[in-house]
Each structure stands twice: as C-alpha cells, then as structure tokens.
C-alpha cells in the first residue's frame, strides 16, 4: 500500500511470543476498545485519549498464551458507534482497495489492516454488524460468534445484550484457528457460556457437504444495489449447480430489525456510557464549580457528535412516556426476529444473504446522514438481535474492483457449521 | 413524536450532557428523522410476543479472589489524594444554605 490507511492507531513493540502455541507467530491487530496492558485503549474517543488499562482483556491473554504477537491497536468508530470508521478521534481509516472509500465500521481499522497485509488477523467487536460489514467492504472474512461464546472481560461495553468479540482474517481457516483460542467460559464474564468449545477447523474441508442453505428472498426485495444482487444471485445459482441444497425461508420480522436494534442498543449504550463521567478515568474538564457541571462538561467535550446523538436516542427510548411504546416494543420485535430464525432452522442449516446492501461507499458520503449510515447494517442486524453466529465471506467484486461479501447465519453455538459454510463459499469463489 | 429543542434539552438533563445551541439544533433535526423512521415498529403486531430475554448469567463460586489493587484501580483517575478520588463539591459555595 502506498497510502497511509490509518488502520493502526498504535503499533506495539511485539514482545517475544510464547513458543509452540497454536497461534505461534501470528500477528494480530486489536480493536481499540479491547483492553491491553501495553499501549493505550481509547475506543477511538477523546474521552479515553491516553487511557492505559491496568489489565489485558481475556481475549488478549488467550491470544498471547497461544503464541500470537499483538501488532497494535486498530482504529474504530468512537465506542463502536458507526459503520464507516469516520467517527474516530484519530481520523478516518481508508479502504485499502480504494482509499477514497470507507473500510466500513466500526471495526474498520481491523478489517483494513488484515486486507492490506499489515497483520495476519485482527480482533474486532460486533454489536450490529461491526465485524461483518467492514469485512465485506475490505474483502476479508469476519466472524461474529454466538452471544456468550467469547469472553467480553476487557471489552469496553457499548450494548451489552449484543456486544461480542470476533476475528477478522484472510480465510475461514484462520478465523477458525483464532476462534478455537479465544472461545470459552471465563469466570470474569458471567455472560460467557459454558457450552463446550470444539476444534472449529476440524470439519472445514467438508464445506457445504450435507448442508441445506436457506435464502430469505422476501427480505432481499428492494434496497440492494444491482452489483450486490447480481453477485449474490450468481453465487446461489453456482451453489445449486454444484449440488448444494438451497431453499427459500422466511424472516418476516427482519425488516423491522433495524429500528428495534437501534432503539435497544442505544438504550443500553446510554446506560453503559454513563460511566464516563470524568471521575474514575477519562477526560475531566478543569475549573468546573460543581460535581454536576464537571460531569456534564466532561461528557460534552469528551464524546463526539454521533455518540451524543446515540446517548440521547437511547435516553429517549428509556424515558418516561416512551419506555413502553419504544424500548419494550422493540424488545418484543427482537423476540419475533429470533422466532423467525428458529422456524427457518427447522428447514435449513445456514441462512444466506449478502452482507451489505452496497459495496464500500465514499468517504464523507453518509457521515452527515445518520439514517443512511444505520441502513448500511440492515442485513447484519437480524442475527445480532437473535444472538446467533454469523460470518461475512468475500464473494467477488464489483466491476470497479470493490470487494463484495455474503453472510451466513447459523444456529446458536454452531460456529463450526458457519465456518464450514464460509469455507464452502471460498471453494466456490476460487473454483 | 415531536423532537424539538426543548425535548432535546430534557434528554440532555437525563443523560448528563450539555450541548451548544448549534449542536442541539443539528441533533434535534437528525434525531427527528431517525425516530420518524423507527416509528415503523409501532405497526408491527407484537401481541403474544414476550420481550426478548438474555440467557441467564453464570456466576462464579462465591469465594473471595484477589482483584486489581487500589493503586492500579485508581491509577487513571484524573485527580487523587491518599488513595481517594478527588471531585468538585456537589454544591457551589453557599448554595446549600439557600
């Protein structure tokens, strides 16, 4: 790459790795909202500028113990709130395939770093699509594990009922290797699951063998760019031609998922981000006469515009007079989306859609239009609502050479099948 | 739903924020459009649907374990004294006597 992508906002020295581990020598970028003792953890925000964590996140501990080398911290939308990595105090990250375009977000630094070969793998965090959408825009594989599959101890919280740490890698096999290391119960995260961890690489070679793919065609009506649709239709035809069973499924409530997601996630964010008050860590303004003034002024100076907008949106959804009709109703819609998947999985093993409605958009194109930015997540949000594992896999390019991705969703804790499907897509693509 | 300047002021107070007038106008305009779009969920039939519940948390054994020591835990606090965090007073001088 000849331009500075601004994918890494801090490079680490690279301590001598633990020899002989399952990830020996693998260089891994870490999203800036995952705590590391080395360097800083700033969540792409002025609020935490210069913050030094006193501990490593569990995922970082596990990577180091497995022999990985931490390459540094990757850029992100502030506190994970964005779909373009333009909402960062460190400035935007550029897409390595076209530096006039965004890498997606919020894990845009992680996706760009892996795509450009700056590291072998990266960790991101995915709330509504923040691993998968940038993976699609940058042409890498991005996995959102089942909610609870990976410990979040040391992940700075955005929306706790959605947040999950996931790997971005150049292949499904690399994602499987990293997941096998970071997955599993953690006594320091009471929401981490005790479901057994398997070797996610073991069955990758089987691809789609014996699997049935469901496609929610009704959900894909309208709002999807022609290039994305042509690529997707070509993939479905190709898979059928190769003997893969493909059948229609219905996700009737998925279109309402976007609204439900942004109401619930930002309600949770408004509570989670209350901790940034200038008292225990982060920015504190000087000269405030009272405690309340210090809190309000520190928060107002420390947070960027999108974070403030979302805190206010979440506060609206939780406030007296709106709580029942907005927040509680959104939680019911969330349950309906999860029911849709349960029904779909009676007829198929994986649900297939494009990952995004468009390829990577231009820098500045949506940054002043929050609704347009939110709509970029419409295809990844339903799996987040249901807490299911999902992966984005590169499936080709536009005529102009921009990467496109497809999205596979599986049953809870069945990352093994999700990654098998990802390997199956790679096999078809590389034919 | 009307999201005007006054509504934003009320949300600011609840959220511990204080915006400039320009910021407030910009956020009021964008939030009004976003909430207008989200109004679509008012038309979804949710009768009979229970609200989503997260899986039960698994708590660890109730045994004392060592955690961060106090010095590390408050090492990032902007102002400390003798192992305590220092903050401005809750009231301006004389305000509590009014």
What would you say this structure looks like, in words?
The complex is a heterodimer of chains A (431) and B (98). By secondary structure, chain A is an alpha/beta fold. Helix content of chain A is 33%, strand content 14%. Chain A contains 12 helices and 11 strands. The longest helix of chain A has 22 residues, at 323-344. Chain A starts with 7 loop residues before the first strand and ends with a helix. The relative contact order of chain A is 0.15. The mean pLDDT of chain A is 97. Chain B is mostly helical. Chain B contains 3 helices and 2 strands. Chain B is flat. Chains A and B meet through α6, α7, α8, α9 and α10 of A and α1 and α2 of B.
- List low-confidence stretches of chain A: none
Shape of chain A: globular
The largest chain-to-chain contact, stated as pair and per-chain residue counts, equals: A-B, 71 and 56 residues
Our Rg estimate of chain B from Cα atoms comes to 23 Å
Content of β-strand of chain A = 5-15%
Structural class call of chain A reads alpha/beta
Shape of chain B: flat
Q: Work out the number of β strands of chain A.
A: 11
Which secondary-structure class do the elements of chain B indicate? Answer: mainly alpha
Regarding quaternary structure, how should these chains be classified? heterodimer
Largest sheet of chain A: 11 strands, mixed
The main sheet of chain B orders its strands as: 1-2
- Runs of chain B in which pLDDT lies below 50 for 5 or more consecutive residues are none
Average pLDDT taken over every residue of chain B: 90
Overall residue-averaged pLDDT value of chain A: 97
């Amino acid at each position: 790459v000849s331009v500075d992508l601004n994918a890494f906002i801090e490079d680490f020295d690279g301590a001598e790795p633990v020899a002989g581990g399952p990830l020996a020598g693998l260089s891994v970028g870490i999203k800036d909202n995952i705590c590391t003792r080395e360097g800083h953890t700033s969540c792409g925000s002025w609020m935490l500028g210069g913050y030094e964590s006193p501990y490593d996140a569990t995922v970082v501990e596990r990577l180091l113990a497995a022999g990985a080398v931490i390459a540094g911290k990757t850029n992100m939308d502030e506190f994970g709130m964005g779909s373009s990595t333009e909402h960062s105090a460190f400035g935007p990250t550029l897409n390595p395939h076209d530096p006039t375009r965004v890498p997606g977000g919020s894990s845009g630094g992680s996706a760009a770093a892996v795509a450009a070969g700056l590291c072998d793998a990266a960790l991101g965090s995915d709330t509504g699509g923040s691993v998968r959408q940038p993976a699609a825009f940058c042409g890498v594989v991005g996995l959102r594990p089942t909610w609870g599959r990976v410990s979040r101890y040391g992940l700075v919280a955005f929306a706790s009922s959605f947040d999950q740490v996931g790997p971005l890698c150049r292949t499904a096999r690399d994602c499987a290797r990293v997941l096998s290391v970071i997955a599993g119960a953690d006594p320091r995260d009471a929401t981490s699951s005790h479901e057994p961890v398997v070797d996610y690489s073991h069955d990758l070679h089987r691809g789609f063998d014996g699997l049935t793919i469901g496609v929610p065609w009704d959900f894909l009506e309208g709002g999807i760019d022609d290039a994305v649709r042509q690529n997707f239709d070509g993939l479905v035809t190709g898979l059928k031609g190769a003997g893969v069973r493909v059948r229609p499924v219905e996700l009737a409530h998925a279109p309402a998922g976007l609204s439900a997601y942004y109401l619930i996630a930002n309600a949770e964010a408004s509570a989670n981000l209350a901790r940034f008050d200038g008292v225990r860590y982060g920015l504190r303004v000087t000269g405030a006469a009272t405690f309340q003034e210090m809190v309000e002024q520190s928060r107002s100076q420390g947070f960027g515009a999108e974070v403030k907008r979302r805190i206010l949106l979440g506060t609206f959804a939780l406030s007296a007079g709106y709580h029942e009709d907005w927040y509680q109703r959104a939680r019911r819609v969330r349950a309906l989306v999860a029911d849709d998947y349960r029904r779909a999985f009676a007829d198929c093993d994986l649900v297939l859609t494009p990952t995004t409605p468009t390829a990577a958009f231009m820098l500045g194109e949506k940054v002043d239009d929050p609704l347009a930015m939110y709509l970029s997540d419409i295809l990844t949000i339903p799996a987040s609502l249901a807490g299911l594992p999902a992966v984005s896999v590169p499936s080709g390019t536009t005529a102009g050479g921009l990467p496109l991705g497809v999205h596979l969703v599986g049953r809870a804790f069945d990352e093994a099948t999700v990654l098998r499907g990802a390997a199956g897509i790679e096999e078809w693509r590389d034919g | 739903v009307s999201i005007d300047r006054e509504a934003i002021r009320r949300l600011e107070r609840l959220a511990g924020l204080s915006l400039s007038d320009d910021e407030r106008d910009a956020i009021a305009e964008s939030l009004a459009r976003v909430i207008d779009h989200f109004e679509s969920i008012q038309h979804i039939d949710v009768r009979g649907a229970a609200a989503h519940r997260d899986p039960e948390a698994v708590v660890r054994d109730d045994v004392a374990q060592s955690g961060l020591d106090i010095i590390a835990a408050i090492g990032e606090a902007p102002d400390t004294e003798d192992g305590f965090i220092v903050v401005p007073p809750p009231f301006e001088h004389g305000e509590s006597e009014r």
